[in-house]
Small ribosomal subunit protein bS20 (Romeriopsis navalis LEGE 11480), 97 residues
Amino acid sequence: MPNIKSAQKRVQIAERNRLRNKNYSSAVKTLMKTYYAAVDAHTAEPSDESKQAVQTAMSAAYSKIDKAVKRGVLHRSTGARRKAKLAKAWKIVDPVK
């Protein structure tokens, strides 16, 4: 533990930021898994309800990824790559005709 007061404060701030970053990255991973599960469910049994569930899950995941990038939790390129991966998973299942 640091002896200098400002260094102690930096340790506290770093811990607070680490927990916030962990929260965001965990939420991004969870929403991505939810999205992939919705895509799999739509693949197994296509319906309008399952398609709507996929769209809802996609918008939630996109939103959380964008917020994580804005906060600095994820790098810009990482956010773009993850969003592209989500879009590709949907494009394979439901190609534009």
